[in-house]
Specification:
This protein is of the alpha/beta class. Helices cover 51% and strands 11% of the residues. It contains 20 helices and 9 strands. The radius of gyration is 25 Å and the shape is globular.
Length: 469
């Protein structure tokens, strides 16, 4: 008899599948396990993997589920859940499902398995979201260290501003994949809701824009623009810790968006409580949604990331070399990319195959074995050495293109890998002011988006020193 009821539930899943996209179905419906059905009480018991999973189904899909149950079982069904609260010890908890006030009848004629298009928006507004379309959920490899942030990020992307995860504050060490994940949220949100105004911006670029607005006396226009965003994604907000005016301005933008139910996503290398220099009124707002930590990937996840990169880029790297890189690269996704890029460069230049001997050679040159923190002097030395420029040219007033590029890149890496404020970096690199440093960093960021050869240069430099997280 239970086989019959299991078949009815499978039919429910097929009906649901016709009314959600494939990613939604795989994420929220494939993991559900049929447990039992009681004809006496008309109660269906389904097992779900977590309490969060149960709450998400009840919040977003309960009407669709009850519609499918009605169509398949041809009677009123009471839905109950068996929640797995401890996988290791196999502890579960049974809870009663809620009854929807109204059961939705899906409009199957309206592109059931497709994302909404611009035709669904009366007045779509043009805005470049500044997203990296290569950084998606498909290329963000899941593991134990990132499962929760990835799952939450996907739910936010599918229902921006509608969940309790607002703001979503993501933190973790350099190279763990924060920028990739928040980009993936933005890309998926834009795919799901093309009419929404989605914007990714680095904290540094936001500060450059704000500084320029103050100089031009257009601060109100600057604030008004950001208050029109539906999904605002800000990366590396720890860089605002020494910029009280920028923080005050962002406070007003944040408050406005939050009151309107717009989605706010923030990324940092540290949790809110460790953001020195940020006032309590903003810290409490950062903490009122969900704070999630993105940990460094373990060795197995590093292996999975490397194998996925090889498949995606058509690379052939032996399994033992992949394992060696994964155990040596100190759990940094950015360093994994850098080591692989260096391996391929050496292989092409010297016309040799990628083997363990070459990997050991690259790792030996790439990984810094001491524990001293990276300094501006270290950065300048590496950048100048890479481009064959004498260090004195960095500190000169020369506007020669090669010197300017190396100077700007040194400022960018100093801002990225040291805790020094922009004003101090400018003083140490030729006595420049903080606005010059911010402009230089923004210039490098924009070039990295379009110049693959320059990306390779920077990647090679970054992997040449080992940083403390």
């Amino acid at each position: 008899m239970q086989n019959k009821h299991k078949a009815l539930w499978d039919n429910c899943l097929q009906l649901i599948r016709q009314n959600v996209n494939e990613q939604q179905f795989k994420t929220w419906f494939e993991p559900i396990v049929f447990e039992s059905y009681s004809e006496e009480t008309s109660a269906l018991l389904l097992q779900v993997p977590s309490a969060y999973f149960y709450e998400y189904l009840e919040q977003y899909y309960i009407r669709l589920i009850y519609w499918a149950l009605t169509q398949s079982f041809k009677c009123g069904v009471k839905l109950n859940y068996r929640i797995v609260t401890d996988k290791i010890h196999k502890i579960v908890q049974d809870v009663e499902g809620g009854q929807p006030v109204q059961i939705d009848v899906p409009q199957t004629s309206r592109r059931a398995n497709q994302s909404p298009s611009v035709l669904d928006a009366a007045m779509p507004q043009e805005l470049d979201p500044q997203l990296d379309v290569q950084k998606t959920f498909q290329t963000f490899i899941e593991g134990d260290s990132n499962k929760l942030p990835r799952t939450v990020g996907l739910s936010i992307a599918e229902h921006p501003g509608e969940s309790t995860f607002n703001p979503f504050f993501l933190y973790g060490p350099s190279g763990c994949g924060k920028t990739h994940l928040i980009n993936a949220i933005g890309v998926h949100s834009k795919e799901m809701y093309p009419q929404k105004r989605v914007l990714y911006v680095s904290a540094r670029l936001f500060q450059v824009q704000f500084t320029d607005a103050v100089r031009r006396n257009t601060t109100n226009d600057f604030i008004n623009f950001y208050q029109t965003i539906d999904v605002l994604i800000v990366d590396d907000i720890q860089e605002w810790a020494t910029s009280p005016k920028t923080l005050d301005t962002f406070f007003h933008i944040f408050d406005h968006l939050f009151r309107l139910g717009k989605q706010i996503i923030l990324a940092s290398d540290r949790p809110p409580v460790d953001l020195d220099g940020v006032k309590d009124r903003l810290l409490t707002r950062f903490s009122c949604g969900l704070i999630a930590e993105l940990e460094k990937p373990n060795t197995q996840l590093c292996v999975d990331i490397l194998m996925a990169k090889c498949r995606r880029d058509g690379l052939k790297i032996p399994a033992d070399v992949i394992q060696y890189i994964a155990t040596t690269a100190n759990g940094s996704v950015r360093d994994l990319d850098g080591v692989v890029n260096s391996l391929m460069a050496y292989s092409i230049v010297y016309n040799s195959s990628v083997d363990m001997r070459l990997a050991e050679r690259v790792i030996k040159r790439a990984v810094k074995v001491d524990n001293h923190p990276l300094t501006i002097d270290d950065i300048i030395e590496k950048v100048c050495s890479h481009f064959g420029i004498a260090q004195q040219h960095i500190f000169s007033k020369s506007r020669k293109r090669d010197y300017v590029q190396v100077r700007q890149l040194s400022m960018y890496l100093a801002q990225k890998y040291t805790k020094m404020p922009a004003s101090r970096i400018g003083q140490l690199i030729g006595g420049r002011d903080h606005s010059t440093v911010l402009h230089s960093c923004n210039t490098i960021e924009q070039r990295l988006k379009v110049d693959k050869a320059f990306q390779a240069d920077v990647s090679s430099i970054e992997v040449s020193f080992r940083l403390k997280s």
